[in-house]
Amino acid sequence: MKLGCSYFGNRILKHYLEDLEELREMGCDYVVHTYSENDMVFCHAAVADMVAATKEAGLEAWIDPWGVGKVFGGESFSNFVMQNVEAMQVLSDDRPTGAACPNNPKFRAFMQEWIQAAASTGAQVAFWDEPHFYIPTWMGGRPNTWGCRCAHCKRLFEERFGKAMPYEETDEVRTFKEASVEEFLRELAAGAAAKGLRNALCVLPPRDSAHGTANWQRLAQVKPLEIFGTDPYWYAAKRSVEEYVRSASREVVEIARRNGLEPQIWLQGFGIPAGREDELVRAVEIMCEEGVANIAVWGIYACEHLSWIRPANPKLAWERIKQAFRRAQELSA
Ligand SMILES: [Zn+2]
Description:
Elements: E1 2-7, H1 13-25, E2 30-34, H2 37-42, H3 44-56, E3 60-64, H4 79-83, E4 88-90, E5 96-100, H5 105-119, E6 125-129, H6 151-161, H7 171-194, E7 198-203, H8 216-219, E8 227-230, H9 234-237, H10 241-258, E9 262-268, H11 279-289, E10 294-298, H12 314-332
Parallel strand pairs: 1-2, 1-10, 2-3, 3-6, 6-7, 7-8, 8-9, 9-10
Antiparallel strand pairs: 4-5
Residues 89, 101, 103, 148, 150, 152-153 line the site of zinc ion.
């Protein structure tokens, strides 16, 4: 059993060392460090110090392109998008949106710069966190639109299908988006491997294809990939823990095994409603029942400091997360 936790919201080493000790005591084998565009520009050496401390404590250090280009998951903003409006995704209403296009060559080049910087923090694993095309329900989204119809996407679609890209999100458009995310990930994984990083991928759990990552089997074949997982956040999705966590765990384990990968599932350690903290332990039991041997929680202290997703009772939630990790260790012993 491997256990991990994401870490963000602090760049002061003195405080990190205290938090790291708590993570070590609760059984964590690795820490997923967010490394946003803000970190890349303003806190690079500070993140490198934290990565070094993580490794010195005997834990593995992962690095996460948190919100980079707004193509990955995460609450940080993107300077790349602000400075490169021509690299934005264009929606079906012919207007741009605040996210870079995975098919844009300038963004692809920028991601290689990110990889170079991320690797130079000393991190060991690149964590490809929820790569996706524009999601209308996310911040700033416009109802009944989809992306991307930028010049690059339109040209690539036409090359593949021999006709102009339609305004309707047809099956061919969805196939095109899936292929685009796959190719984007291939380039990232190869770039990261060339810098000595191992690769882990976390795909969004909804299996509709609007975001371009519904075809898990296809994405699990990206090489070189070592860890494949998803984050079935059942409180956020308003689904039952029994059904949502179990079905996601089962599918991930099956696809990971078929492709010789390590299955990983993320535990929703944020936005926990009052009185439902015990579900955290149950979620981990379900993951173990389905054969998951790599569990991570998002995130440190149940995200009390990321207050828009703060649990109703953060201290109790964090205690239950620790209890859940102990349960995972018991079940795998
Ligand atoms: Zn595009």
